[in-house]
Amino acid sequence: MRKDLGSLPGVFPMPVLMVATYGEDGKVDVMNVAWGGICGMDKIALNLAAERKTLKNIRAKKAFTVSLADEAHLAEADFLGTASGNVMSDKFERTGLHAVKSGRVDAPVIEEFPVTLECELAEIHDCFGEQRVVGTIVNVTVDEKFLDESGKVDVKKINPVMFDQFRNAYYNVGEKVGDAWRIGAPFMKK
Question: 98: which DSSP letter?
Fold first, then answer.
């Protein structure tokens, strides 16, 4: 028997995306974004509230980075999602994380996060009372220790975390359970 839960954002898993920008003063700003994901081969979309400092920075700099949060830095990622850069001027510094300037866009790369997408602003538009930010991914950078022997990103080494909207909890990514575009192939023969 199925049970109705009402209208809620019931998609799981959701990636824990860390969006980093530079403020007009050159300070690093990072926020944990719950509403975001890939929306094309070279595009990522984020929904941000209009009052966010990160949104102001993206408008000014026309660039941002998006990193995947990992279990090793979950406390920092969670804090960056609950503290406001509009209120707490030393928000990033409190985490002890380190940033370097991206080689491709005018935004910081947080060194501790394993994978980072370097993005140029493509567009911003009003979407259901929030601002939808679409970025063009110009480069993906990864710490080499998270690559496998063939040079591909090894998700198990990254140990990325996912957000569960049902329980307001974080989970790590589990085991590989199948190969995309292959596990369903037997149904093509029916």
Answer: -
Tens of pLDDT, residue by residue over 146-189, are 999 999 999 999 999 999 988 899 999 877 788 888 889 888 88
pLDDT for 48 = 95
State the Cα–Cα distance between residues 158 and 101, nearest whole angstrom: 22
> Alpha carbon 104 to chain centroid distance?
18
- What's the order of all strands across the beta sheet hosting 169-172? 14-15, 161-164, 169-172
Rounded to 10 degrees, the C-alpha dihedral 147/152/155/158 comes to 30
Q: Which two tokens stand for residue 150?
A: 């063939």
Q: How many Cβ atoms sit within 10 Å of the Cβ of residue 64? A: 29
* Model confidence, pTM: 0.93
Q: Residues with Cβ < 8 Å from 182, sequence gap 6 or more? A: none
DSSP annotation of 83 reads S
Q: Which two tokens stand for residue 148?
A: 């496998």
Q: Report the alpha-carbon distance of residue 157 to residue 71 in Å, rounded.
A: 11
C-alpha–C-alpha distance, residues 92 and 74, integer Å: 14
Question: Closest Cα to residue 61, out of 90, 104, 97?
Answer: 104
